[in-house]
Amino acid sequence: MAKTPTLSTDRQWLLTNGLGGFAFGTEAAIHTRRYHGLLVAAISPPVRRTVALHSIVEQVEFDDETFSLGAYLFGDELQKHPDGWNYLVRFERITASEIVWTYDLGRLRIFKHVRLQQLRNAVSVVYRLDGELPAMLRLRPMTPMRGFHSMSHEGWHEPQPQHVATAALLVHNGDIRLRFIGRSATAEATARIESQWWNDVRYAEDRARGQDWAEDLWSPGVVEFDLTGLAAQSRAIECRLDAEVASPMLPPVRMAPQHDVDDATDRLAGAAQQFVVKRLTPDHSGSFDSIIAGYPWFADWGRDAMISLPGLLISTGQIDRAVSVLRAFAASMRNGLVPNCFDDEGGGAQYNSVDASLWFVQAVAQVREHVDQATRWELLEHCRTIIDAYQRGTEFDICMDADGLIIAGNEHTQITWMDAARDGVVFTPRHGKAVEINALWYNALRAMAAMSDRESEQSELTALADRIAKSFAQLFWWSDRNCLHDVLSPTETGGFESDGKLRPNQIFAVSLPYSPLSNSQQRDIVEVVQQKLLTPFGLRTLEPDDPQYIGRFEGDLFARDGAYHQGTVWPWLIGPFCEALLRIHEFDSASKARVQEIVAPLLNELDSGCVGQIAEVYDGDAPHRPDGCVAQAWSVAELLRVQSLLQSTSKQTPKRRNAESQTV
After folding, report:
1. Where are the beta strands (DSSP E) in 292-426?
2. Which of 34, 45, 151, 639 could join 215 in a cystine, given CB atoms 3.0 to 4.6 angstroms apart?
3. What is the DSSP letter of 398?
4. How far is Cα 430 from Cα 416, in angstroms, rounded to an integer?
């Protein structure tokens, strides 16, 4: 008897394999994005991701009656077919690597488990049948074998299937090999080649994003489990379809045990592990650890990795992996620049970031107390390279001006984190002297002076930082509003002028361990940011009073990129805001209570959207719907870091150096 569907395509799930590969879908088991799939394999970990196993068309035969478990969307009206959603009664995320659906066919219950293997591009889809056994379970894997950003269409390509064993098929597509094997301890499993195209499958979320949203799916054949004659032996049997893409075998990773944490911290720590992946060395002889910026579409980005590292790895006690991440990006450093990102198809690094290197220095400052002397010396040498390059000048017009401040970029570049641009349009031009870049620069110099064991270096860095503090306070302070200008852009006469935008980037001048501002200025900044930019899910990227404010993150990709930093809320900014709030109140009990109130709505999001994760962005306007990547590394990392800060005291936090305190 058909059941009333209660599960939603709005709620999603994510499983990851530690290589950059993943499985991803909706709790209603209906794909609504090109990125949904049961096995999205990372062919060159953590990139070159390929939709190897998109889905499985499942049929259960009772005498002359056939039941389907799956469903797809077809046509402009998004018609669901087959009708498997009618029998779906429950979805549950068991662990970060396993989910299960329950189907009720009246006389039979089927529990479908999806288990993603760790450090392998492999998935097991297990069917537990309990009740009156059917005659046949027939599984047709859909295998587009395409890059996860693209779509497949009949006539463009067709992978080559090969029957390699009684219950096994091998699919070739260029250098990619995908193997299917049907397994059961009690039922007879057979496989046969029977290629099919399923045309005009539609993706509702891609349509909403203004992208191509129709695809043709290819299937190599069928794996069948003959259940006739088993009813007298057992009422419960298990059938399994294993799928694996050949990939480098990597040693297992020992996860750090978690002790004395509350439920929220424990869940965040579980979410954090989904972003930590292996990056193969260029010759594939070994690997580093790295951090995926966000699922489903981001790879490992330098800026995101450096910002996320303290929360994801240091706060969870995984110091060795934190050092490995630093080494991964340091190994590709060029002219003092940490890579902004690596090519999605396994190519080289890109360096269009002014802040990734400065965040690298901050990450080293936080990890150095936990490492041995040799590692500390190694990491400090990388920091010296960065500071020297920024002083002398490096790529993307990054250099230190006469006043000690960093000037970077031009009208054609986007090298701060507010880097949205599309079709030649730069939506938030921030070339010149950006406030967070110079807050990070000041912090990097103070941190390096504190880390250095060379007196001459300490003196030089301290003198430069003192000069920068004066320049920073003089040029960035917005006296009319008691806060900081966001960016000072070069003028035709050789000077600099503010763009008049109130943005959240000023909060870093308070949250970082070393601030160039007075205590009263820091308190004023926190107050302004709280009044104008704070929402239940993070900080807005532009105040709502601004004529260019955009309160909805929606529409096609051009519209979304236009809204990305013009009012859209970013959860990761809740971390620096909360730290700033704690710092100005010296981590007293009242400020900690206030921070707990601030982060509560975001912690509740672990049960919404993508279950167990935190999204990349939210609408600037209420009701603040989540969007962007369904799981974002720094969104989770900064919440974890806040949880760690709440357990600290003012005496345990780094000492401040600002206009009213000269203690390093």
Report:
1. 294-295, 341-342, 349-350, 399-400, 406-407, 421-422, 425-426
2. 151
3. B
4. 7
Residue 242 to residue 121: CA distance in whole angstroms = 11
Q: Which sign, positive or negative, has the C-alpha torsion 652, 658, 661, 663?
A: positive
Neighbours of 19 (CB within 10 A): 28
Q: Of 450, 355, 371, whose CA–CA distance to 406 is shortest?
A: 355
- Which DSSP category does 252 fall into? P
| Sequence-ordered list of residues with C-beta below 8 angstroms from that of 219, at least 6 positions apart, any chain | 57, 140, 141, 142, 143, 194, 195, 196, 197, 198
Q: What is the pLDDT of residues 456-469, one digit of tens each?
A: 999 999 999 999 99
Mean pLDDT of the chain: 92
Domain 12-245 in CATH 3.40.710? The answer is no
Nearest partner of 565 among 385, 436, 386, judged by Cα: 436
Task: Determine the Cα–Cα distance for residues 218 and 223; give it in Å rounded to an integer.
Answer: 15
Residue 190 buriedness (CB in 10 A; 0-12 / 13-18 / 19+): middle
> Under a CB-based contact definition with an 8 Å cutoff, are residues 417 and 507 in contact?
no
Distance between CA atoms of 259 and 174, rounded to whole angstroms?
Answer: 47
188 SS3 class: strand
Distance CA 620, CA 276 (A): 29
Residue reference for tokens 């929402």: 535
Residue type, position 603, single letter: L
pLDDT in tens, 532-577: 999 999 999 999 999 999 999 999 999 999 999 999 999 999 999 9
Comparing 3 with 374, the larger pLDDT belongs to: 374
* Proportion of the chain above pLDDT 70, given as a percent: 93
**CATH 2.70.98 domain residues, the chain:** 12-245
Q: ∠ CA(376), CA(380), CA(383), 5° rounding? A: 150
The predicted model scores a pTM of 0.94
Question: Three-state SS for 312?
Answer: helix
User: pLDDT, tens digit, for every residue of 208-253?
Assistant: 999 999 999 999 999 999 988 775 455 678 999 999 998 655 554 4
Element (H, E) at 510: helix 508-511
Beta strands (DSSP E) in 151-297 are 160-165, 168-173, 176-183, 188-202, 214-226, 236-245, 276-280, 287-291, 294-295
